[in-house]
Specification:
heterodimer, A: mainly alpha, 2 domains, 12 helices, globular, B: mainly alpha, 6 helices, 75% helix
């Protein structure tokens, strides 16, 4: 049985390598807000209030382009709706927590933290304080997101754009799913999602980010049925 | 006004995170649904990966000889065999840089 501190450290260590993509992305996110002419305090506050990289950038770009508040909020909601799927997966492991703890832990559920903690949960279902792994991964991502967006706001885009550091984002997620390429059912689901995302890329409100997972999950259900 | 919009966007985002964890009883999900949920990472992350590789900053498809495709292939191979996140990211980035800066 691992202690709470051990689980927390394992969560921290699991997401630490992803800082190679989180930090540049945070800097870009902060710098874009300033370039678009927004108040620095407001740009930073978004990292606390919304705490979702891609949606923060889209939000600022829409508002600066003259889109209405309704469109901006809808886009953020659509982009972040994928968290509903993460929550559905995580609820299995967080079931026994009190309502208040569930409310608190929900705030730190983000892509990489979900991905790494979920991997750990699947292999260690019997551990007692599993949620400390999620706290470790989530808090780590939160702190580094705050610091890197702040750095981008204060220093501007001090990393030259020619470096193409945005490319680190797809790479970080390749690292997350690459081992599942061993399983043919997962490969089918991944390709379905990936091709759908390209097909629906121009759908309104960036909805490809939730349309393609839904299509891929339907395919997953089909695959499961065929396997039986 | 912008502040209010951010706060509402924050509340909406928080609800996307919290609803399934705190509000929805897990027993409401059927066995079939729970089985399908095991595919969530494979069903979600390619929607971030594919556009990040194949679509450029202006929303158009890249050419088939784009350095990002090469970088992604290197990252997949290195990631698959090394099982190491840092090696995956850095090999992808550096092979991409080699092409854009040296060739």
């Amino acid at each position: 049985m691992l202690t709470k501190t051990q689980l927390f450290s394992k969560g921290f260590l699991a997401v630490a390598p992803h800082m190679f993509s989180v930090i540049p992305f945070g800097i870009i996110c902060g710098a874009i807000g300033i370039e678009l002419g927004f108040d620095p305090v407001l740009v930073y506050a978004m990292s606390i209030i919304i705490f979702g990289g891609a949606s923060q950038i889209v939000f600022l770009q829409l508002l600066s382009g003259g889109a209405s508040a309704l469109i901006a909020v809808t886009s953020v909601g659509v982009i972040n709706s994928r968290h509903l799927l993460y929550g559905a997966v995580l609820s299995e492991y967080l079931e026994k927590l009190s309502f208040i703890k569930k409310l608190l832990i929900s705030y730190i559920v983000v892509d990489q933290g979900f991905a790494e903690s979920n991997k750990f949960f699947m292999k260690n279902k019997t551990e007692q304080h599993l949620h400390y792994h999620l706290i470790g991964s989530g808090v780590t991502l939160w702190i580094f997101w705050q610091l890197s967006t702040l750095a981008g706001i204060v220093l501007g885009s001090f990393v030259p754009e020619e470096l193409g550091l945005k490319f680190a984002i797809p790479l970080t997620f390749i690292a997350i799913v690459v081992q599942d390429l061993k399983k043919i059912d997962h490969v089918i689901v991944m390709i379905t999602c990936g091709l759908s995302s390209l097909l629906f890329f121009d759908a309104p409100f960036k909805s490809y980010i939730i349309i393609s997972p839904i299509i891929a999950l339907f395919v997953a259900a089909l695959v499961l049925r065929l396997k039986k | 006004m912008t502040w209010l919009t951010i706060i509402i966007a924050g509340i909406v985002t928080y609800f996307t995170r919290m609803t399934m964890i705190a509000l929805v009883d897990r027993d409401l999900l059927g066995e079939r649904v729970k089985e399908v949920l095991a595919y969530v990472p494979s069903a979600v992350f390619p929607a971030i990966i594919f556009p990040g590789i194949f679509i450029n900053n202006y929303g158009a498809f890249i050419e088939m000889n784009d350095p990002k495709i090469f970088g992604a292939i290197v990252a997949i191979l290195v990631g698959y065999f090394s099982r190491n996140v840092i090696a995956t990211i850095l090999s992808g980035l550096s092979s991409y840089w080699v092409i854009i800066f040296l060739l």
